[in-house]
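[READ THE FOLD]
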Amino acid sequence: MQLVIGNKNYSSWSMRPWVLLKQAGIAFEERKIRFDAFTPDSTFKTELARVTPAGCVPVLIDDDLTIWDTLAIAEYVAEKFPAKQLWPKDAKARARARSVCAEMHSGFGALRNQLPMNVEASLPDVGRRLLAEDGAVRADVDRIVEMWSGLLEAHGGPLLFGDFTIADAYFAPVVMRLRTYAPPLPADVAAYVERMVASKGVAAWMRDALAEKDFRQFEEPYRTSRD
């Protein structure tokens, strides 16, 4: 299998299936298409058009099959490798895991737009300002805290459904955002963030993201350089 991704420092959608595959120990070839711009004639869009009509990363290629939606990729991998138990075993827990993944897939617009993923950056001042000024951002962060606290309590940790599942991979980019923008977190959620950071898949992604050193101005609303 080949997974086509964008820059690891910025591409939150790419992070999800990459971390899932890495954490589960599923072999894949990585192909990174560097962000240069998102205009139709950009190198990024031109190269990506050869892979998928959707024009977005990530894309999973398995022989003659191409899958370009993150949740579809996760479902395909879970079916292809059932022994990996990427969804919770219990039917009710599995339904809840799919529900929170779908909520992340279609919601949290303020969090996505105002707190973009930026693994190498440390922007606590920006985080404090946005939490104070933007009610939608505050509501999204509050919902994440409520969700994670409830899941950790219901399933006993250490991760959202006990062992690592697709749900944890799905929220890995949110973990990155919480590290970058540093909102105050209750102890149970802060501990979950640290466990995720230490997990094999997330730690490997972060190492690669920090090694990129590829400043993309159009992805940087709060910095003018890497310094």
User: Anything to note?
Assistant: The domain at 91-208 is CATH 1.20.1050 (Glutathione S-transferase Yfyf (Class Pi); Chain A, domain 2). The chain has a mean pLDDT of 97. The chain has two domains: 2-84+212-217, 91-208.
